[in-house]
Write a structure and sequence with these properties.
- The complex is a heterodimer.
- Chain A is mainly alpha-helical.
- The radius of gyration of chain A is 24 Å and the shape is globular.
- The radius of gyration of chain B is 24 Å and the shape is globular.
- By secondary structure, chain B is α/β, with parallel strands linked by helices.
- Classes of the chains: A mainly alpha, B alpha/beta.
- At the A-B interface, helix 2, strand 2 and helix 13 of A face helix 1, strand 2, helix 3 and helix 4 of B.
Chain lengths: 376, 395
C-alpha cells in the first residue's frame, strides 16, 4: 500500500432511495423476526413449547388492558415532556428527577393536608389543586436550574441533570424516612387513608384513575404536537436547535427561549409527578420511575420526535414489558432478567434497522481488490 | 397499501385470539401466585419458595400451577404484581412484612381472588373478606432450640471452661420489633429452663440481611464474653463469626451444618407448606376459610427443628422431644409468667398492641391462666416485654 490517499473500506452515507412503504415493511419485518428469535431463546431457556410461551405473552399483555394503556401513556408522557428540550438540542437527562420531585411535594401535601382533609371535612378538591400547583412549580424549578446554569455559565446540561436526578432520589428517600418517624412504615402513610387521592372507580378490570391519567397524558401529547408544529414558540425552538448562531442572527433571544422551553418541560414533568402521587402510586420511593426518563429519550429519538410514532413505540414497548414479565412469572423464573434480555434484543434490532434505513453502507470494492492484488 | 395493512391487522388479531384461547384451555385446575421480596439467594425467601413447591407436590399439583415473582420491593410494585397475578391466579401469597398495605389494597380491588400475607398484622381488623394473615408459633421452636443451647452451656460449665455465673448468651437481632423480642425471649426462657444462671445480651443490626453487620455484631458479643450465639437475621454473618472463633451457634431458618460443621448446634424454622396446603385446598374445594389469622404450630408441622448437630451436648434430642411432648399436651407454656419477671416483679396483666392501628397502644389483655397468650389473638407475634436477665444493646 503505497498511495497516501487511502480510501476507507466502508463508506456510510445517507440513504435517499428508500420508499416509505419499504421502510415500514422492513421495520415490521425486523421486529417480527427479533420477536421470533427471542421467543425461541425463551423456549430453549424455559424448556417449554414456544407457542405456549407466545400465548402466555399475548394473553398476559392484554390481561389488564387499562394498565397496559397506562404504562404506554406514562412512557409516552416522559417522551413528550422532553421533546421540546431535545428538539432544541438541550439534552435533558433529568426527566426522572423532575418527575419524582413533583411527586415528592405532592406526597408531602397529601400527608399533611390529606389526613387533615379527611378529619375536618376540608375540601379534597382543594388538596388536589394545591398538590397539582406545587408539583408543577417544584418540577419546573428542578428543570430550570440546569438550564440557567447552561445559558449563563455554559455548564454541561447532561451531567448537571444526571446529578439532579441523584439529589432528587436522595430527597425522596430522606422524606420517606422523615415522614415515617412515629409512623409504622414510610410508604404506608399515604396509603392508609384516601385524602389527596383522585376520586376513582375501581373494579377488577377497570381503574378510572388509570383512564384519567392516560387521558391527561394524551392531551399533553396533542398539546406538544400543536405547540411544536403550529406555534411561533415551536418554530423558535426548532431554529435554536438547528443552529443557535442563526437564531441569534435573526434576532431571537436564545437564552429566553431555552429557559422558556425548560419551563414547559418542567410543567409537563410536574403533571406526571402529580399523577403518580394522586392517581397511580399514592406513594413514592427513589426508584419508582425506574429508567423511564432514559427510555423516553430512546423513544423520542427513535420516533424522530413524531408524536404518532412515539405513541406506537410506547405502546409496543409497554406491551413487550408486560408480556415478557408475565412469561417470567408464569414459568417461575421469578425475576425479570429474561424479560430485560428480550427488551434489550428488541431495542438493539430496532436501532440497527434504523441505521440501515437511514444510511447506506458501501464497501469499497476497489480497496478489496487492491488488497487482494497486494496479497497475491 | 391500506388493504395490506388491514390484512396484516386481521391476521395479527386472529393469531392473538388463537393464542389467548389456547392459553385458556391449558389452565390448571387452580392457579397459585407467590410474591417474594428477594430471590432464592436469601434464606428467608428460599424457605417460602421451597415450602411452596413441597405444598404443590403434596396436593398433587404440577409446578406449572405456580406463578412466581421475586425481587418485589415493599412499594407500589407489590400492588401492581398482586393485581397482575390476580388476573390469572385464584390465590396469591406474599412473604414480606412491608408488602401488607399493597396486598390489602389489591385484595380490596380483586374480590374474586384470595390474598394471603405472611407475617402481617392487619387481616383481623381490616374487614376485607378475601385477605388473610399467617404466622407460626415459632416461639415454641425457639424455646426448644434454647433447651439445646442451655444443655450445651451446662456441658461447657461441667467441663470447667467457665463458671455457672459466666454463662452468657449472645443474640444478634435485626430490629427491636415484637417478632424479634418474642423470638429471643422464648429462646432465652428455653436456655434458662435447663441452665438457670444463664443471662443474655442482644445486639441489633437494623437490617434483616446484612452479612457484615451481623458478622461484626457476633464478634463483638463473643469479645464481651458470650459463650454461645444465636441470631434472628437472614445472612451467614453470625454463624461464620462463630465458626471462626469456635463458639457454639444456634441458628434460624435452616441448618448451617454444611458451612459451620464445628459450631452448629440446632436450627429452628417455619415450614410454610402446611399453611399453603390448607389455603390452596380450600380454594380448590371452593370453601371459604373463616379464620383470618393462621398460626402454624408443632402439631400442624409448621414449626420445625433441623437435626441436632454433632457438637450438641449428650441427651439433647431426648430433652427436646420431652419438652415438645409437653408443649403439645399443653402442660408446658413457653411464656409461663412464673418463669420470668419484668423489673424484678412478676407480670400478672399486660395489654399488647394486637390491633395494629399504627398507634403503638396496647388494647388486648394477653395474660390469663398464668401464661402470656402469644399468637392467639392474631398470628404475628406481639410479645414485646423486656424481661429480667436480658440486656439490649443498640449501636
Amino acid at each position: 500500500m503505497t498511495n497516501k490517499h487511502r480510501e476507507p473500506l466502508f463508506t456510510v452515507f445517507k440513504r435517499t432511495s428508500f420508499s416509505k412503504k419499504n421502510s415500514i415493511l422492513l421495520r415490521v419485518g425486523i421486529i417480527a423476526f427479533t420477536f421470533l428469535v427471542s421467543m425461541i431463546v425463551c423456549s430453549i431457556v424455559i424448556k417449554e413449547n414456544m407457542f405456549a410461551i407466545i400465548g402466555t405473552f399475548f394473553s398476559g399483555a392484554v390481561a389488564r388492558p387499562w394498565k397496559l394503556i397506562l404504562d404506554a401513556c406514562i412512557l409516552l408522557g416522559f417522551g413528550v415532556a422532553i421533546v421540546p428540550a431535545f428538539k432544541m438540542k438541550y439534552w435533558n437527562m433529568g426527566a426522572n428527577g423532575q418527575v419524582i420531585m413533583g411527586t415528592l411535594v405532592s406526597i408531602v401535601i397529601m400527608f399533611y393536608m390529606g389526613n387533615f382533609a379527611l378529619r375536618s371535612g376540608f375540601n379534597n378538591f382543594l388538596t388536589l389543586v394545591l398538590m397539582f400547583i406545587s408539583s408543577v412549580v417544584v418540577s419546573t424549578i428542578w428543570a430550570v436550574i440546569p438550564a440557567i446554569f447552561k445559558v449563563f455559565f455554559k455548564t454541561n446540561e447532561v451531567l448537571f441533570n444526571l446529578m439532579m436526578n441523584y439529589i432528587a432520589a436522595g430527597l425522596v428517600a430522606y422524606t420517606n424516612y422523615a415522614l415515617a418517624k412515629g409512623q409504622k412504615e414510610a410508604q404506608d402513610v399515604t396509603l392508609l387513608n384516601e385524602g389527596g387521592w383522585l376520586p376513582s372507580i375501581v373494579t377488577k378490570n377497570f381503574n378510572s384513575n388509570y383512564l384519567v391519567a392516560s387521558i391527561i397524558i394524551i392531551l399533553m401529547t396533542v398539546f406538544v404536537f400543536i405547540y411544536m408544529s403550529k406555534t411561533k414558540h415551536g418554530y423558535e425552538v426548532t431554529v435554536v436547535g438547528d443552529s443557535a448562531p442563526t437564531a441569534r442572527y435573526v434576532g431571537m433571544h436564545t437564552k429566553t427561549i431555552v429557559i422558556r422551553t425548560l419551563i414547559l418541560n418542567g410543567i409537563m414533568c410536574g403533571i406526571l409527578g402529580f399523577l403518580y402521587a394522586s392517581a397511580i402510586n399514592h406513594s413514592m420511593n427513589p426508584s419508582m420511575c425506574g429508567s423511564l426518563g432514559f427510555t423516553a429519550v430512546l423513544i423520542a429519538w427513535l420516533s424522530n420526535f413524531n408524536p404518532i410514532i412515539m405513541s406506537i413505540v410506547s405502546f409496543g414497548l409497554a406491551f413487550l414489558t408486560i408480556g415478557t414479565s408475565k412469561i417470567s412469572s408464569v414459568y417461575r423464573i421469578g425475576n425479570n432478567d429474561l424479560a430485560n434480555v428480550i427488551i434489550g434484543l428488541m431495542f438493539f434490532a430496532i436501532l440497527i434497522s434504523e441505521f440501515f434505513i437511514r444510511y447506506q453502507v458501501r464497501i469499497n470494492i476497489k480497496m478489496l481488490n487492491r488488497k487482494k492484488e497486494v496479497e497475491e | 397499501m391500506k388493504k395490506f395493512f388491514k390484512l396484516v391487522l386481521v391476521l395479527v388479531l386472529c393469531v392473538c385470539s388463537v393464542f389467548a384461547l389456547s392459553a385458556c384451555q391449558s389452565k390448571n385446575k387452580v392457579k397459585v401466585g407467590l410474591i417474594c421480596l428477594h430471590d432464592e439467594s436469601s434464606t428467608y425467601d428460599k424457605n417460602f419458595i421451597d415450602s411452596m413447591y413441597r405444598a404443590l407436590d403434596e396436593l398433587g399439583l404440577k409446578a406449572s400451577a405456580l406463578e412466581l415473582v421475586t425481587g418485589i420491593g415493599e412499594d407500589n410494585s407489590c400492588y401492581e404484581k398482586a393485581c397482575e397475578l390476580a388476573s390469572t391466579c385464584d390465590i396469591v401469597f406474599a412473604d414480606s412484612f412491608g408488602h401488607e398495605p399493597y396486598m390489602l389494597k389489591a385484595a380490596k380491588e380483586n374480590p374474586d381472588t384470595i390474598f394471603c400475607h405472611a407475617t402481617g398484622t392487619q387481616a383481623h381488623t381490616a374487614g376485607v373478606e378475601n385477605y388473610y394473615n399467617a404466622f407460626a408459633s415459632i416461639y415454641e421452636g425457639r424455646y426448644l432450640a434454647g433447651i439445646a443451647a442451655g444443655m450445651k452451656l451446662n456441658e461447657m460449665i461441667e467441663a470447667g471452661q467457665f463458671t455457672a455465673l459466666e454463662a452468657m448468651v449472645g443474640y444478634v437481632g435485626a430490629f427491636p420489633y415484637a417478632e424479634v423480642v418474642s423470638g429471643y425471649t422464648s429462646f432465652f426462657l428455653g436456655v434458662r429452663s435447663v441452665c438457670p444462671t444463664a443471662t443474655m445480651v442482644v445486639r441489633y443490626t437494623s437490617s434483616w440481611y446484612d452479612y457484615d453487620k451481623e458478622y461484626a455484631a457476633a464478634n463483638a458479643l463473643i469479645a464481651s464474653g458470650c459463650k454461645l450465639i444465636s441470631q434472628h437475621a437472614d445472612s451467614y454473618g453470625a454463624p461464620t463469626a462463630c465458626e471462626e472463633k469456635n463458639v457454639p451457634n444456634v441458628t434460624y431458618n435452616g441448618s448451617t451444618v454444611a458451612k459451620c460443621p464445628n459450631t452448629y448446634i440446632v436450627s429452628s424454622k417455619i415450614d410454610w407448606a402446611p399453611y399453603y396446603v390448607k389455603m390452596i385446598t380450600a380454594v380448590m374445594n371452593g370453601e371459604k376459610v373463616a379464620e383470618k389469622d393462621y398460626v402454624g404450630t408443632i402439631a400442624t408441622g409448621s414449626v420445625k427443628l433441623d437435626a441436632v448437630g454433632s457438637n450438641a451436648a449428650a441427651g439433647t434430642q431426648e430433652a427436646i422431644d420431652a419438652a415438645k411432648a409437653k408443649l403439645q399436651a399443653g402442660t408446658l407454656h413457653v411464656f409461663d409468667t412464673s418463669t420470668f419477671t419484668v423489673g424484678l416483679l412478676p407480670v400478672t396483666s399486660y395489654k399488647a398492641d394486637v390491633d395494629d392501628a399504627g398507634d403503638y397502644v396496647g388494647e388486648t389483655e394477653v395474660i390469663a391462666n398464668g401464661y402470656f397468650h402469644e399468637s392467639e389473638y392474631r398470628s404475628a407475634p406481639y410479645f414485646d416485654l423486656r424481661i429480667d436477665g436480658i440486656r439490649e444493646l443498640n449501636d
